[in-house]
Specification:
The complex is a heterodimer of chains A (233) and B (113).
Chain A (H helix, E strand, L loop, with lengths): L2 H12 L4 E6 L5 E4 L4 E2 L6 H13 L3 E5 L2 E8 L3 E6 L3 H12 L2 E6 L15 E3 L3 H8 L5 E5 L4 H11 L6 E4 L3 H13 L4 H5 L1 E2 L11 H16 L6
Parallel strand pairs in A: 6-7, 6-9, 7-8, 9-10, 10-11
Antiparallel strand pairs in A: 1-2, 1-5, 2-3, 4-5
Helix pairs in contact in A: 3-8, 4-5
Chain B lengths: L3 H5 L2 H13 L4 E10 L9 E5 L4 E3 L7 H14 L3 E6 L5 H4 L6 E9 L1
Classes of the chains: A alpha/beta (233), B alpha+beta (113).
Chain lengths: 233, 113
């Protein structure tokens, strides 16, 4: 690996810019590819270049046969993010679990008594109203959003932004009854059935979770299934 | 969160460390899991870096093949040639460097120039 390619990949990672590194495993020649550019000694064109860009778009690293030979494509996408709304007890279990699973986690709660740095060491905590905070965070297709407060004043504004974002997983904690009322409120507020159906409610896989840690586990499990396109319910 | 660094150590940290070793003037090789079959312990893209000062970061398996990969990495630092290594239970090396889980992996090893 040429040093300038290594540096270019690391710089892209720091800038949270998605890139793919294509390696000819016979010759060792490499190219760093993004949506517009190609850099490095591996010459790629036509279908081989398309294959690399497809892998990048689909976030799928692996070996591919192309007219340019057998290539290993490694996709470097920005880290997954999780936005947790509600600095509640379950958040204290979910935040460290999601961090270990590789998520860059942000906690939002306008109630300052809940959302303190002491309760969430090393995590970004925003004491803002969720709609403002969420708009600032601009959820993308590598973002998961979980609301935990059960309080419509806090959860609904967050969900309103979430369901019109490309976030891959949106979940709201609460019983079926709570979720039913939530659906009614969002319908009245003018959201479509398709938009509202994106919310997983009650949040989490049915694993009989009771304690905060178990509930956090069920939510993270459902989020993981969604990330990998598996229907786990 | 304290303590999560080791658990989340991924290609980012491995590549950063490889770059730092290189800047310190050390010879460095990078190993990457490029294919997996069956139940292999680490997914495609998992990396390990080794320096000629016998330092190592990352992993390409649950520990079964690291020794062999490090040796090939050191050879690659010497001769500059990339290598594609094949590991599995059926390759006759099972006792020495096979994967206990029954999976198979292909690991690409390259020198960082």
């Amino acid at each position: 690996m040429k040093r300038d390619i290594l540096q270019a990949v690391l710089a892209a990672r720091r800038d949270k810019h998605p890139v793919a590194l294509a390696t000819d495993v016979e010759t060792g020649e490499q190219a760093m590819v993004d949506a517009e550019t190609r850099k490095g000694d591996l010459v790629l064109a036509g279908t081989a270049l398309d294959a690399v860009r497809t892998a990048l778009a689909e976030d799928r690293s692996g070996m591919v046969e192309t007219e340019a030979g057998r290539l290993f494509i490694q996709v470097f996408n920005p880290p997954l993010r999780m936005i947790v709304v509600g600095a509640v007890h379950i958040a204290q279990a979910l935040v460290p679990m999601a961090t270990i699973a590789g998520y860059d986690v942000t906690v939002i709660d306008p109630r300052r008594a809940f959302a303190t740095d002491a309760r969430f060491p090393g995590t970004s905590v925003l004491n803002e109203w969720p709609d403002e905070a969420m708009t600032g965070l601009a959820p993308d297709r590598r973002t998961a959003i979980v609301t935990l407060t059960h309080d419509p004043k806090i959860d609904d504004p967050a969900l309103s932004v979430a369901i019109r974002s490309p976030a891959f997983y949106i979940a709201a904690l609460g019983s079926r009854r709570t979720h039913g009322k939530r659906v009614e409120r969002l319908t009245e507020a003018g959201f479509s059935e398709t938009e509202i159906a994106r919310i997983k409610g009650p949040a989490g896989l049915p694993i009989g979770a009771r304690s905060p840690a178990e509930i956090a586990l069920s939510v993270l499990a459902e989020c993981t299934a969604r990330l990998h396109g598996v229907d786990a319910r | 969160m304290a303590g999560s660094d080791a658990l989340t150590a991924d290609f980012e940290q491995v590549m950063e460390q490889a770059a730092r070793w290189r800047e310190e003037g050390k010879g460095v090789a990078l190993a990457t899991v490029v294919t997996t079959w069956g139940s292999s312990p680490r997914p495609v893209g998992s990396q390990l870096a080794v320096s000629d000062a016998k330092e190592m970061i990352g992993s390409v398996s649950g520990g079964c093949i690291e020794g062999a990969v490090v040796l090939e990495g050191l050879k690659s630092i010497e001769d500059g040639k990339p290598r594609l290594l094949d590991f599995g239970v059926s390759d006759g090396q099972a006792w020495e460097v096979g994967l206990a889980c029954g999976g198979k992996v292909e690991v690409y090893v390259e020198r960082v120039d």
